[in-house]
Design goal:
The structure is a single chain. This protein has 119 residues and is of the alpha+beta class. The protein has four helices and four strands, in the order H-H-E-H-H-E-E-E. Strands 1-2-3-4 form a four-stranded antiparallel sheet, with helices on both faces. A hairpin with a 5-residue loop joins strand 2 and strand 3.
């Protein structure tokens, strides 16, 4: 997927995770979008478990709970994508329609997830 196409999909969503994703993408961040879609139920189940695990570790990912709900409601296969800035301080997860023509949901969280001891 070309960068300008992904930017236009994100520009149509005013959720905070999408706003951050668009700004990150426009700053030159690396991105990746899957070539094929997977069933919505698979993604919803995986990311619901990841959400619970993140919360167990005291992290509240931005928009992930909403993303899981929207993927379930969408009910059709979705393509995933990632946006990662060069400084690796944040990651954004994208869920797109099967043909990549629309954004289903967007979520993000700071990196690294696990902070290492300074000792």
């Amino acid at each position: 997927m070309e960068r300008h196409v992904l930017e236009s999909l994100l520009a149509g969503d005013d959720e905070e995770a999408s706003v951050i994703a668009l700004a990150t993408l426009r700053s030159g961040a690396n991105y990746w979008v899957a070539d094929r879609a997977q069933p919505a139920g698979v993604h919803a189940g995986v990311f619901d478990r990841r959400l619970r695990r993140m919360r167990m570790h005291g992290l509240e990912p931005l928009g992930l709970e909403r993303a899981v709900r929207l993927i379930r409601e969408h009910g059709r296969p979705v393509r995933t994508g990632l946006i990662d800035p060069a400084d690796r301080t944040w990651t954004t997860l994208l869920f797109l329609t099967e043909d990549g023509s629309a954004l289903v949901a967007c979520a993000g969280w700071p990196l690294p997830l696990v902070k290492k001891s300074p000792l």
